């Protein structure tokens, strides 16, 4: 069981296999699953998404979709990559190298040397691999010649002194064939990686003559892995995740990923409440159980609602997850630098949810490392809501970007 989050990436992953055994010890019977639910929109800016267990069959509460990756300028030298995790809490496309098949992409370079990236997470894992150039197509939208990360442990020799931890670069270790980072910024590191090396050990140039030599380097903004939506010709100011309401564990749930906010008739903001985030920390404040959690965020890549509660019972057999004896109906208020919105939500027993063996687990929730500084509104928050993620420095209805928006319930 792992939960991943780094300074600019809120992604939280949980692989299901180890938890099935733990949940089975709780003595709770599995709930009777309800029929699969579907929400679908249509249009050239709409991509189907699915909550399922992923390519390894052990990933609950993850949204997956497919992405077409092409050699720059080509419409035939392409590879469709399925089972890519949809993550509104990270930035840029990362694809497991083996999922690209025989597709060959051009290499990004610094000073004539190949550019690589070590994308680290707080749980001690990381993504390693080269930064390469690709055309990325999703539904009818195309981002041309953008930097993506190809996950590959065999690319050069990983600089163990600065890129430390456990690699998560294969389908088996990642639980997906890639990550589609659709968060509220364009660049995955920004100005932190353009100067002041070695303040941020994220990008590396690897010698072409000595493959075992990779050293930390600056990476100009145009070289960094980037949110592909921000580079679409149109519909480039954000995304909407649309999923149906789910009240009990279900095998699968399907929905839509809509590109753009207020750019077409199918992506209007409507009466959604806007919560503007701090442009530096990309967070807002959640008031929950009289505590002000000032580093809160909304993240489809987190597979649960993670916060510290004084009132909800923690599981006895699964560390850091909640197991109330009956459904806990709760509420909170999210407040940004501008705008606020209430949230009503439920927490169900993690024992019962995991014992179902299903992919869509509403009410899955856990603790947040014993602090009250943040509320991680993960995937269960998205069920039954249209959730908007705008991109900074883009113009969108609803006020200054970046912001999250959703309908109060």
Helix content: under 10%
The structural domain count equals 2
- Radius of gyration (CA) equals 20 Å
The largest β sheet comes out as: 7 strands, mixed
CATH-defined architecture of the largest domain? Beta Barrel
**Cα-to-Cα separation, first versus last residue:** 31 Å
Strand order of the largest sheet: 22-21-18-19-24-20-23
By CATH reckoning, the class of the largest domain would read Mainly Beta
Mean pLDDT: 88
In DSSP terms, counting alpha (H) and pi (I) runs of 4 or more, how many helices?
3
Give the overall shape, derived from the CA principal axes.
Answer: globular
Approximate strand percentage: 35-45%
Strand segment count: 26
> What is the CATH topology classification name of the largest domain?
Cathepsin D, subunit A, domain 1
Structural summary, described in words:
This protein is mainly β and about 400 residues long. Helix content is about 5%, strand content about 35%. The protein has helices spanning about 15-25, 170-175, 350-355, and strands at about 35-40, 45-50, 60-70, 80-85, 90-95, 105, 110, 115-120, 125-140, 140-150, 165, 180, 205, 215, 240, 255-260, 275, 285-290, 290-300, 305, 330-335, 340-345, 365, 375, 385-390, 405. The strands form 2 sheets. A 7-stranded mixed beta sheet has the order 22-21-18-19-24-20-23, with no helix packed on it. It has a 6-stranded mixed barrel with strand order 3-4-12-5-10-9. The longest helix is centred in the first third of the chain and has 8 residues, at about 15-25. The two termini are about 30 Å apart.
């Amino acid at each position: 069981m792992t939960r991943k989050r780094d300074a600019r990436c809120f992604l939280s992953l949980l692989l299901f296999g180890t938890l099935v055994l733990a949940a089975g010890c709780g003595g709770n019977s599995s709930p009777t699953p309800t029929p699969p639910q579907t929400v679908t929109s249509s249009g050239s800016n709409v991509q189907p998404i699915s909550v399922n267990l992923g390519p390894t069959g052990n990933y609950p509460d993850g949204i997956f979709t497919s992405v077409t990756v092409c050699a720059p300028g080509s419409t035939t030298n392409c590879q469709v990559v399925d089972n890519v995790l949809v993550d509104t809490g990270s930035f840029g496309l990362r694809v497991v190298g083996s999922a690209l098949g025989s597709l060959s992409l051009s290499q990004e370079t610094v000073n004539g040397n190949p550019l690589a990236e070590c994308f680290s997470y707080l749980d001690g894992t990381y993504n390693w691999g080269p930064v390469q150039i690709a055309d990325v197509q999703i539904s009818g939208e195309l981002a041309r010649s953008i930097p993506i990360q190809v996950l590959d442990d065999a690319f050069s020799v990983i600089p163990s002194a600065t890129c430390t931890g456990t690699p998560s670069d294969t389908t088996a270790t990642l639980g997906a064939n890639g990550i589609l980072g659709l968060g509220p910024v364009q660049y995955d590191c920004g100005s932190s990686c353009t100067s002041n090396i070695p303040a941020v050990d994220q990008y590396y140039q690897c010698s072409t003559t000595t493959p075992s030599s990779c050293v930390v380097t600056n990476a100009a903004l145009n070289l960094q892995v980037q949110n592909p939506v921000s580079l679409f010709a149109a519909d480039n100011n954000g995304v909407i995740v649309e999923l149906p309401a789910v009240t009990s564990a279900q095998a699968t749930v399907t929905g839509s990923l809509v590109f753009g906010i207020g750019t077409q008739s199918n992506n209007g903001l409507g009466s959604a409440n806007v919560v503007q985030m701090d442009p530096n920390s990309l967070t807002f404040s959640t008031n929950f159980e009289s505590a002000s959690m000032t580093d809160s965020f909304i993240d489809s890549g987190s597979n649960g609602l993670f916060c510290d509660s004084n009132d909800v019972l923690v599981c006895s057999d699964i560390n850091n997850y909640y197991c109330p004896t009956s459904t806990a109906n709760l509420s909170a208020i999210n407040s940004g630098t501008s705008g606020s919105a209430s949230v009503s939500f439920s927490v169900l027993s993690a024992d019962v949810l995991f014992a179902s063996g299903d992919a869509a687990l509403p009410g899955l929730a856990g603790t947040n490392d014993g602090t009250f500084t943040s509320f991680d509104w993960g995937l269960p928050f998205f069920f039954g809501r249209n959730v908007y993620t705008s991109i900074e420095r883009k113009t969108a209805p609803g006020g200054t970007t970046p912001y999250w928006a959703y309908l109060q319930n």
